[in-house]
Amino acid sequence: MSDETKVVETSEAQIAVHWKEEELYHPSEEFIAQANLTDKSIFERFSLDNFPDYYTEFADLLTWYKKWDEVLDTSDAPSFKWFKGGKLNASYNCIDRHLDKNKNKTAIHFVAEPEGERVSHITYQELYVRVNEFAALLRDTAKLKRGDRVTIHMPMSAELPITMLACARIGVIHSVVFGGFSASACADRVVDSNSRVLITMDSYYRAGNLLDHKAVDDEACQLAKDAGQEVDTLLVWQRYPGKMSSPSALVEGRDVVVNDELKKYYGARVEPEEMLAEEGLFMMYTSGTTGKPKGCLHGTGGYLSYVTAMSKYIQDIHPEDVYWCMADIGWITGHSFIVYGPLALCASSVIYEGVPTYPDAGRSWRIAQELDVNIFHTAPTAIRALRKVGPDEPAKYNYKFKHMTTVGEPIEPEVWKWYYNVVGQGQAAIVDTYWQTETGGFLCSTVPGMQPMKPGSAGPGVPGIHPVVFDEEGAVLEPGCGKAGNICIANPWPGMMMTVWGDRERFVESYFGMYNKNRESKDWRDWPYMTGDAAVLAEDGYVRVLGRIDDVINVSGHRLGTKEIESAALTVPEVAEAAVVPVNHEIKGKEPELYVSLKPGYESSPELQQKVADAITFQIGKIAKCKNVWIVPDMPKTRSGKLMRRVLGAISNNGDVGNVMTLANPEIVEEIQKMVQG
């Protein structure tokens, strides 16, 4: 099925919305007093009447070799070019420009998973030296030049941003693959981007085990070769400099041990390439539900100015802050909000190698206490996990967050309140940010110093972003009408991807095909960006995201968002996690089936099953009554902690669960199958 038909088939998202609006939480006076953005006139300045010129305020946060000739070039719509003709370098903006006043400041705190290993504090001066030396190695040993693509398959480590910034320094487009991805996923990306250089690390820690990572990339090289793309250079960083921690043998003529090779480049300095704003900085692949992953190409000037502004105004990062984004750099969150945004602002960014609950549920809070972290950024998946395994842990540690982010998926109000009251001690401002790989930075969120928070809702559009909700016919669903539809963005913005690598047609169809009436138009107004998510706009303009348009269950003609059923289940105090899947029903069409896992110390019982079922009919109504409530020992999850609803859906519908060996806990699948299928 093509992306286009998928979108059209599943986009009749007129879901009646059943939840009550949550109360508002206001930021503290203390937070507002220090916030980067408290000037309410920004919303007027960033109104569509002033588009696109208002975005020069974001570009002015950067250092340019040459200012732009044109703010927005729409001649190749919808491949918009921002700050066209301007010249800059991302590596220079993240490192060099800070040296004059802040060379001794910590740029990166690297926290190893084993608690016995000391934290590495890398100053901006050390980062400058290491990025320059590695850039020289990329240029001279790996023979890379401006415009080439490189695939990076590395775990969380200080060497990962060093590698990215070295690529940016010499104008090489990097494509980072999440470290937990398989050899096959890595090979697909090598082939699609035509990378002849792959950069890896020999090993890394995960849940107490030192994993052999090089073996994965030996296999990826073979798979890529079989598909017609030869990797002629495999650069291998050592987890422990000076010794190999992988038993996999080096391949003569292909493998280069970075830590040995770097000795040749001691003291090397590489002049940053003056990149055009519209030249590519990196690619990031999104795995769609259909077809091969799409390589989203992000430009240099637009992307960097956007994430710098979002880091400053929405994340509220000041140079003196210690900022910890718990995402993996292999995802867009890590690119934008561990590496490029915070470092462009001269912040101190924490990188943690391992599992947030290893060796116990207090680990995250110990790291926060030790480094005096004051901005904390994570995903609902991690928040739910921390709430499940250690709801009382945060209170045992001495840390104080001024600001906390939630990102990556909608957060249930009950989980939000635990995050606010327990993790944030009722003092931190929370931003619930909504955005995507394709968007580069935030689309919707409250501005923390100016707007109140509403549990379960991302905020309105961030300054400059103008969301609109359409029904499938293209009619606007007005705020407060109580109906959900397809959330789109009316205007382009600098963080937006420029195209899908090597497939412009797919770019146009996937993101603009549904609501664009004229493919020839050069007017940005004709190109609303379609996110592919269903959402409802409250009267106050706050956006509540229901998940992907296909995460909607049609029960007897009523369309229910899976997220609202899961949120209802999570109001039951014993429940830690909830997942809803649609089950085929000959009369109703579909029927929701619910899986829940419990917090430690609670046992499954028929009474508890009934309590959960009652909570759903109480919160939403009988229409949302679930076929079954299954209390399971754990949910099937990927290694990055994502709950695999697809696997549960297959079990409920007696379908094929597919390959589950890549899951973090494959054994749980069989256990659930026995329970459900008997």
Can you characterise this structure?
The model is unreliable at 1-15 (pLDDT under 50). By secondary structure, this protein is of the alpha/beta class. It is globular. Helix 7 (124-140) packs across helix 8 and helix 9 (183-193) packs across helix 10 (214-226). The chain has an eight-stranded mixed beta sheet, with helices on both faces.
Structural key phrases:
678 residues, alpha/beta, eight-stranded mixed β-sheet, 21 helices, 22% strand, globular, disordered N terminus
Condensed summary:
By secondary structure, this protein is α/β, with parallel strands linked by helices. It contains 21 helices and 30 strands.
The biggest beta sheet reads: 8 strands, mixed
Please indicate the percent range of residues in DSSP E strands (runs of 2 or more): 15-25%
Helix-and-strand structural type: alpha/beta
Average predicted local confidence, pLDDT: 92
Low-confidence stretches: 1-15
Order of adjacent strands in the largest pleated sheet: 12-11-8-6-7-14-15-23
What is the count of β-strands? 30
The helix content, as a percent range, equals 25-40%
- Rg, Å, rounded: 24 Å
What is the first-to-last residue Cα distance? Answer: 33 Å
Overall outline: globular
Helical stretch count?
Answer: 21
